[in-house]
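Supplementary Text 2. Reproducibility record for the structural model of the 310-residue chain.

All settings were left at their defaults, and a single model was retained for analysis rather than an ensemble. We include the record here because the model underlies the residue-level annotations in Supplementary Table 4.
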Amino acid sequence: MERITLNSTFSGELHIGDITIPCYVLKDGRRVLSGRGMQSALDLGQTRGQKIDRLVNNLSIKPLINKDVALGILKPIEFRVGGGVKAFGYEATSLVEICDVLLQAKKDGILPERYISAANRAEILIRSFAKIGIVALIDEATGYQYNREKYELQKILKAYISEELLPWQKRFPDIFYKELFRLNGWDFTPNNIKKRPGVIGTWTNKLIYEQLPNGVLEELKSKTPTSASGNKTVRYHQLLTLDVGEPNLNTQIGQIVTLFQLSDNMEHMWNQFNKLKSRQQGQLELPFSFDENGHTKELKNTECNPKDKD
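Retained model, structure tokens:
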């Protein structure tokens, strides 16, 4: 096994029909597929990778494998994902090579019976790779590859953000603000509620709106009208679509309220929230510091006016 200290810089999942394979790009540019994912894709089981080794070393199959190719397949890679979790896989091209060998062995009538299911999966994978490949080639030839992300973002924004301004309705339940006040050590009184600190708007952006898909909050900011004094005249949620935007907003609010209720103070809540999110996108930057009681102490920058209400 090749043991390396490289971390993955990107990770995701390759979806081919009902087949899902975790995939990674290492810092040196190598594309790697999860060993367990490859085995599952070929219907070989979920063990760490031993069955792939057995497959390529099978006496019937091994003669069909090019020696240079075999070296790559038999040289699994150990690397690190995210915060240092060890992962195990193969260079992505190895899966294509294994599929080719399985199909050739089946065609030649020398494929062992126990690998028939794997060969059937290999045929599905090869056909899918061909379809994906022609799309990628067209994208490269036309230059569309450089615009895919922009077009995908436009699809997301269209799904989340309404063309028409919706009438104001209460979207944030009282419990959201009651818990936010409790965690910061503020008295939940009618006067304090009416004149709640602008820091609440920043917390709301950080915990709610920034958790919507990338680009949504920026689009909401750009589309929200303001008065001559610079105050927003409508709320972000009035710009969300009823079928996608608002349900996702409500789900996020519900998750955060639950986290609030499980926390002792704002610092404790943030640590719990950050622990959950760091598994997906690394440590999150926070524009606050906390006092000895774990309450919000300082606002370094804010994009929310104290008069804003949700």
